[in-house]
Amino acid sequence: MSSVGARGTVLLLLTIVVGGAAGWSYAEQRDQPRSSEAAPSPVAAADPAIPFTPPEKTKPDPELDPLTQTLATHDERLGTPRKGGVILPVPNGWVRTTFPDGRQATWRLPDGPAGGYTFRVQLLDENRTVSQKVGVRPAELRGDDLVSDLRVLGKSFDTLKASFIFQGYRRLTVIRWVSFGGGLVDLEIAATGRVIDETGLEALVAKIDQEVRLQPLPQKADQKSDQEADQKPGAAISSRTP
């Protein structure tokens, strides 16, 4: 073979090798995913963040034993006989405060701390049934500027149980309405205390409901006037206790 022919053969082989390597490199690059050096764009959130309101801070409960379910009681009178006055059981030793109209009173422990337990009884003269009073009371509580964070915990045809913050304390109340004639409401009973007093509050309301009764009408005209309270009122309280 001549020198010219040998050179041609070598060049041909080199061309084949270089071409094959270039083709393999191109194919390899095609198989690999492409990457971009551009800065990534932020992904927009689907929805704005949900606003969060921290829970309202409350004062610590006073250090009292939980309200017992078996309180010893005695009878007291509220109102006058001809105006729907009642006789009701009251825990022994509890102090009474009567409203100026003589138709509503509260009872609590003597020198009891703020945030302790108390109960209230009110004579009513409204054109509403018991179930209607149960229905409207949550709205009345929500409309009270002194009450916040109201939570309705339970309802029945004559009773409402709710929790709320009052004067900085977390309170639990059990309210029951009574109709002596089975028609319009005559009486409201409300016991309020701490959450740990729940069973005692329920028992107190149930006892008052079971034993409360109308005062007997006087037999003679010269007996106590309808305008005279059967028990001397105490000092009026400045704001209503729920």
Index terms:
242 residues, alpha+beta, 3-stranded antiparallel beta sheet, 3 helices, globular, disordered C terminus
What can you see in these coordinates?
With 242 residues, the protein is α+β, with helices and mostly antiparallel strands. It is 23% helix and 26% strand. The chain has a domain at 73-214: Mog1/PsbP, alpha/beta/alpha sandwich (Protein Transport Mog1p, Chain A, 3-Layer(aba) Sandwich), CATH 3.40.1000. The chain has 3 helices and 10 strands, in the order H-E-E-E-E-E-H-E-E-E-E-H-E. The strands form 2 sheets. It has a 7-stranded antiparallel sheet, with helices on both faces. A 3-stranded antiparallel sheet has the order 1-2-10. A hairpin with an 8-residue loop joins strand 8 and strand 9. The longest helix is centred in the N-terminal third of the chain and has 29 residues, at 3-31. The termini are far apart.
Provide a short characterization of the protein structure.
The chain is an alpha+beta fold. Helix content is 23%, strand content 26%. Mean pLDDT is 82; it is low at 10-33 and 234-241.
Proportion in β-strands = 25-35%
Helical residue percent band: 10-25%
The H-and-E topology, N to C, reads as HEEEEEHEEEEHE
Query: Over the alpha carbons, how many angstroms does the gyration radius reach?
Result: 41 Å
State the separation between the terminal residues, measured CA to CA. Answer: 120 Å
| Helix/strand structural class | alpha+beta
Shape designation: globular
Strand order of the largest sheet: 3-4-5-9-8-7-6
List unreliable stretches of 5+ residues. Answer: 10-33, 234-241
How is the biggest beta sheet arranged?
7 strands, antiparallel
Kindly report the CATH topology of the domain at 73-214: Protein Transport Mog1p, Chain A
Mean pLDDT across residues: 82
Determine the CATH superfamily of the domain at 73-214: Mog1/PsbP, alpha/beta/alpha sandwich
**Extended strand count:** 10
Tally of separate helices: 3
**Highest CATH level, the class of the domain at 73-214:** Alpha Beta
The CATH architecture of the domain at 73-214 can be named as: 3-Layer(aba) Sandwich
